[in-house]
Write the structure tokens for this entry.
Amino acid sequence: MADSALWQSYTGRLFCLRARPQPWLDVLAPGLALLPVARCLRDPRQGAVWMRLGPDEWWYWTHPGATEVLPGLVSEAAGAHHHALVEISDAHRALRLEGAACELLTQGCELDVARLPSGFAGRTRCAAFTVVVCPEGRGLWLWAEASWAESFERWLERAAAVQRGGAPCPSPPAGLPLKPSG
């Protein structure tokens, strides 16, 4: 699906780094080793953002062409420390929602998007989709799994119609598992 009035799709490079938090991570970005889970660290030198999504999982997002040196930097900084760095750009689609479009997520997201703290980055459910969200300025970045991205974008369109009062409440696409109740 193409961009809409609600969001813009972005092309970039997305990497997943798995490692134990150790001081060598600070070579990649000062403060990265002690970054709390569900927080992000912006790297203005690279125009990038590091997101700590779990106790041993960091995502690195930047514009296309800016990360050719990242694998070498990680390998050099890690030395003999166990780690894994995998590019996951093709597995996710990056969307940017601005202003009122962010309110659409309140119709299906478990997070209170309006109250996310500055520097938040985390994985959550939105309707039947797993997404990663990272607020920035008046909007937020959102990464959806590429295989479900078109369905998610259609869900956003239906949520917008509900918000305008012109359609029934959006439901997950057929065949997707529903969240268990209770």
